[in-house]
Fold these 3 entries.
Entry 1:
Amino acid sequence: MKTLREYINIVEGKEISDDWFRDGSFKTFKKPIPVPYKIADSDGVTDTLEGPVEHRKGHYIMGPGPKGEFWPLEPDNFHDKYDDNGDGTGTPKGGVIKLAKLADHDGVVKASWGDLEYTKGNDYIVRHGENDYGVVKKDIFAQTYEKV
């Protein structure tokens, strides 16, 4: 039986699922580049590259990134993916190997923080974990990820 997230990831007859990564994906990891953050002191909206995304008080607002972009993370998600440097920056956890694949169709990935649109040939879909996917613009991917 499919989870709700798996059903939501079906777009244009193609499904972003763990199986989708079997052909054409590669192993990668996020480069250990510190990223500034602020902790939201109230509920609000973060303007991301994919559009406005709601955040809650206590969420980490990451950025600016390579293109001046910002993105919210739930506290548990931040601590799972980043080491807090204690100076208002977080560094991606080292040694975490992920799978990535260049999008072969247009679509939307449903993440816990909002809908992430992607376009064929312009965005990488990164598999963070089982049924947990993110979207990274091709030029940002080249700056922040490295192939294994």
Note: The first strand starts at residue 10 and ends at 11.
Entry 2:
Amino acid sequence: MKLGIINSAFAQAGIDTVAGLEHIARIGFDTVDIGTEACGISAREVRRVARATEKLGLPVISLPFTALGLIDFQKPVREFHIERCKRFIDLAKAWNARNILFVLGEYVWQREVIPPAAQWQWGIESCRRLGDYAGKRQIDIALELEPFRLSLLNSIDAMVRFVDECDHPRVRANIDVSHLVLADVGPNEVQKLRGKAIHVHVSDCDGKVHGDLPPGRGVVKFGPYLQAIKELGIDGVVAVELEYPPDATKVVEWVEEAYRETDRLMQLADLRG
């Protein structure tokens, strides 16, 4: 698998997109995932990013974002977010990316008032429609597992059930190692995603709270998870996902540290290639 990073690590520190891409290429990453907003991005910026990634030899693989409104109980809200997701699919196509990757969101009102089964079905219907649109553009959809109590997809079993019920060749799963740890999902369960996962996120955490830290800064034991991911035979990318650095002036060092440790872990697992 290739080693990539979500460029938001630099964007969060106020660094220009292209300047961040230049750092990413220099540090040694194979690919990049670009966090942006497809609604409102200018044609000039789209062209600027395309030129930069081509010049740097840095393929865009994924466009990660949140799509919480896809399971909203109000149909106009769902329709708006379907159209918004279509913009991301179009943008992914413009950048020759492989997939869009989004978070579906959470059950509202503690799973009361609105039947949880209804929100689940709205998610299925929305993803099927988006899968059809993405299929025409040769783009995949990767769904994020979130380790929060009310998240729609908060366990591997929930992810497997959703992907199976959606039953669309373009709708697949993302594996986030720290999210699995926070959801108390062991590496032995990763095999349930065989044939269903297309992308991977790597970050560390303290085992209690969502953190997105460089590997080695928390408690995650990556070896067994990376071995389990290797056994899935995914033709994809391991993308480092970082939250805000403690010191924005040292974001480059923050990313370099994450690169070194993730590369080391992938090499130990014979996963990078």
Note: The beta strands are 2-6, 31-33, 62-66, 99-103, 140-143, 171-176, 197-202, 237-240.
Entry 3:
Amino acid sequence: MVAETAPNAAFTQSNSPVPHRERAKQIIATHPNVRRLFTRDQWSALWTALLVALQVAIGIGLAHAQAPWWAIVTAAYVFGAFANHALFVLIHDYAHNLVFRTPTANRLGSIFANIAIVFPAAIGFRNYHLLHHSHLGIPGLDADLPTPNEARWVGNSWWRKTLWLGMFWAVQGVLRPTTVKTIRTVDDWVMFNAAAIVAAMAPLVWFFGWWPVGYLFISTIFSLGVHPVGARWIQEHYVFKEGQETYSYYGPLNKLSFNMGYHNEHHDFPHVPWSRLPAVRAAAPEFYDHLYHHRSWTRLLFFVLFNSDFRLHNRIVRPVPERMKDRVAA
């Protein structure tokens, strides 16, 4: 089967500025009390420890009980995906230095959260995600953008979209970083991140075999892929209403995802921790209620996979700033 691609399929080009900075200024001018939400939430460290410990304990328990492979996969889908997705959200808050006072402490916290995810992603995510905020929608700077070849290959084929989302851990963690030339893919912190994960996995394998690690990694694949929480990665910036670039989700799974669905609010105020993002919307509803938003990640998942109108080309892109062209092309 060949993926169907419209003859003129292309990303939506825009010269308009990113809306978040201007909207944030307007909200602060209208609701100055929003500034009180700019703080850190050290409870995230406790949640990190609990979720990592729980995930590791489940993996060990499944191995000790000699659970069959299908039971391990089922446990990873039914529970593990939610837990590891929640850990990704906490890693996201560490990336914005919203847990501890110093960047070093936040890096270390994110690496600890990374243990249950297995794939060493925390520091790489931090490096590329901060660029995503400062250069939203700019190819070569925003690693959240699909590449032209990636979008062309996926097209609107349901099975290619399913394969792409099922392998999103590799797409986001391995393929996309190669498109960003302005920062080093591997630095000392990235190496330390990888070494820490190896050190954490080694005793699990030594004492309990490979199944605990398998459970954790399968949980990660589902948390990023063909699962309701996997739709979150699509919800954020793929275009569902002409001219709108960022989208929030206001459904019940926010309670299991540390409010990660509040994505417009987060881009407007990246210095607000997950626990206070609903308060941003509550303080300034006139700025958010009219924006297109999602109510169901499950419904979104089925739409993305099986509706031929959805393509990876459904993204807004901006030209590279003149001052950055040499660095992007390097």
Note: The first helix runs from residue 19 to 30.
